[in-house]
Amino acid sequence: MKKIVLTLAALCVINTAMANEQIAETLCGYIKEDNRNQLRKTLSENKLNVRNIYSSIKCNNESMLQFAIRHDAFESGSFIVKQMPSKTLAEFDYAAWAGSNGLEASALVDVIKTRIGE
Known about the structure:
The chain is mainly α. Helix content is 72%, strand content 0%. The chain contains 8 helices and no strands. The chain has helices spanning 2-33, 36-45, 50-53, 64-70, 74-83, 86-90, 94-100, 107-116. The radius of gyration is 17 Å and the shape is globular. The N and C termini lie far apart (61 Å). The relative contact order is 0.12.
């Protein structure tokens, strides 16, 4: 009986991990498409908020904001910026990162700077 319980517990963990990975892929897809409404809807349906998942979601090994800047996803990126605490945004120098990647002209970098008070 103990083995059955342990097996069921292991399956639950695997299913949760797969579901989380699927949600992350979905969110990254909506960011890439610059679909703010679907991004908000997916977060709401899964009872998630950007603040709590921001550090754990990576889109092509980049943060959600880096990914938004790279794909010129202004609407989705602006939504993420508004949901994040300015202190958390200030911890990473998005302007320097954008400059080193040839993305300094991104309007989203200006939104981030405004949010953190630069």
